[in-house]
Design brief:
The protein is mostly helical and about 80 residues long. It has one domain. The chain is built from 4 helices and no strands. Helix 1 packs across helix 3 and helix 2 crosses helix 3. The longest helix is centred in the last third of the chain and has 16 residues.
Length: about 80
């Protein structure tokens, strides 16, 4: 039950310290729960800002949360490739 709440609150944008105060769990516990969830669902998060992506069934999978993140990512990758 705590795991789902930690994930839900973190996706809403709260910090780990806020989550620990709200739920009464240790801050490191909240970090561990969220990081394990994030690592087991890598395709569900934007690679630039780590926001949760809601995928629509029957459509192409989203990789970025916005065009801003997409542009930042590709500019970063292009700059690394040119070095």
């Amino acid at each position: 039950m705590v795991k789902e709440e930690v994930i839900k609150i973190k996706i809403e944008g709260k910090s780990y310290s806020e989550i620990s105060r709200i739920l009464g769990v240790n801050e490191s516990t909240a970090k561990t729960i969220y990081n394990r969830f994030k690592n087991s669902h890598p395709e569900s998060f934007c690679p630039m800002c780590s926001k949760f992506l809601i995928q629509t069934k029957g459509h192409r999978q989203k990789r970025f949360c916005s065009s801003k993140c997409k542009d930042r990512y590709w500019n970063l990758m292009t700059n690394q490739k040119n070095k």
